[in-house]
Amino acid sequence: xxxxxxxxxxxxxxxxxxxxxxxxxxxxxxxxxxxxxxxxxxxxxxxxxxxxxxxxxxxxxxxxxxxxxxxxxxxxxxxxxxxxxxxxxxxxxxxxxxxxxxxxxxxxxxxxxxxxxxxxxxxxxxxxxxxxxxxxxxxxxxxxxxxxxxxxxxxxxxxxxxxxxxxxxxxxxxxxxxxxxxxxxxxxxxxxxxxxxxxxxxxxxxxxxxxxxxxxxxxxxxxxxxxxxxxxxxxxxxxxxxxxxxxxxxxxxxxxxxxxxxxxxxxxxxxxxxxxxxxxxxxxxxxxxxxxxxxxxxxxxxxxxxxxxxxxxxxxxxxxxxxxxxxxxxxxxxxxxxxxxxxxxxxxxxxxxxxxxxxxxxxxxxxxxxxxxxxxxxx
Length: 379
Prior knowledge:
The structure is a single chain. The chain has helices spanning 8-38, 44-55, 62-81, 135-159, 169-174, 183-193, 214-225, 283-289, 294-305, 327-335, 354-363; strands at 104-108, 114-124, 129-130, 198-201, 207-210, 229-233, 237-242, 245-255, 263-269, 275-281, 309-318, 339-350, 367-371. By secondary structure, it is α+β, with helices and mostly antiparallel strands. The protein has two domains: 8-101, no CATH class; 115-350, 3-Layer(aba) Sandwich (Calcium-transporting ATPase, cytoplasmic domain N). The chain has a nine-stranded antiparallel β-sheet with strand order 3-2-12-11-10-9-8-7-6, with helices on both faces. A two-stranded parallel ribbon has the order 1-13. Mean pLDDT is 78; it is low at 162-167, 171-180 and 319-326. GO terms for molecular function: ATP binding; ATP hydrolysis activity; ATPase-coupled intramembrane lipid transporter activity. This is Phospholipid-transporting P-type atpase, putative.
C-alpha cells in the first residue's frame, strides 16, 4: 500500500508531542533523582517515577489531538455537503487543514482559469475595426463582394475571351493588388483557409470541426458565420462554399505551428494556377517579418489590453513556374514578400467566479502565480 499522506500541521503536532514527552520524562527523573542516589536499590523509586509521570502527564495535550480529529471530521462533512462546491469530495481527512497554510497558488491559465472555449470578438484591419455588433453587416458585405467579384470576372473574361486566360474569383480576390477594395473578403478567405481544421459529421449528420487548437475552430466558425464555409478538407484539397459558389484549392504544403516558429503557413494553388501563401502567427514574430507594421503593433497592444488572444494574418502570391526549391528555402523567400491582411481577436472566457475567487485569495494574502504564453497586457 502507498504511504499515508499527512499534513504539515499533523507532523508539527507529532514533533511537539515527542518533545513534550521527553520533557515529561526528564522532569520525572529529576524529581526522583535524590531518592535514587540515596537508595539506589529501593523499588519504591520506580513507583515514585511512575507517580510523577502521571502527575505531569497533563503536559502532553492529548485532548487537543482528540479535538483536532473531531474537527477534521466536521469540516470534511461540511466540504462534502457544500452545495456551492460542486463535485468536492474529501478523500483524506488529514489534509483539509493544509488549505489554511497556503501562501502561493501556481496555476496554468488556459483551461484552468479559463474555459478553453474561444469566441471570436474583433477583426482589425488597417482602415477599420469590426466588433461583434458589426458581424451581421460583415455577412452582408461578404455576400455583396462575392457577387461583385463574379460579375467583374464575367465582364473581364468576356472582354479577354480568346486572347488571355480567363479570370476566376480566386484571382480576383487575392491576386489583383492595385485598386482592390475587397480587403475584407481577403481577410475572411484567409481565416477560412489558413488552419489545420477538418470538418466532420456525427451520427445525426450535424457538422463539427476537429482541430488541435480551439483558436482555429473559433476563426473558422466566424468565417462560416459571415458566409465563407469550410465545406471539405483533405491532405491535398480545401473546398470553401461562398454565397456565389464553391472555391477549390490544392494544398501544396503546410508549415505547421511550433513553439519555435510561433506561426503557421499554408501554400495553396487556385484553379487558375495562381499560388497563394497565407500565414498567421504571434504578433511579436510576425512583426519581424512584415514591413510597415506600426499600426499592427498598436492594435495588437490595444486588443491585448482587452484580454483578447491576437493573431496576425498575412498573404503573398507567386507563380511557381520553373521553381524547385527546398521547402525551407521556399518559406524564407515567400515570407519576405508578405503583406499584412488583418489582426484577429479571440476571447477565451474565464471560468465561473474566477474573478471573485482571485479577489478572495488576495484578501487572504495568498499570492497567485500564473503560467501563460500570452502578452502581459492580455493577462
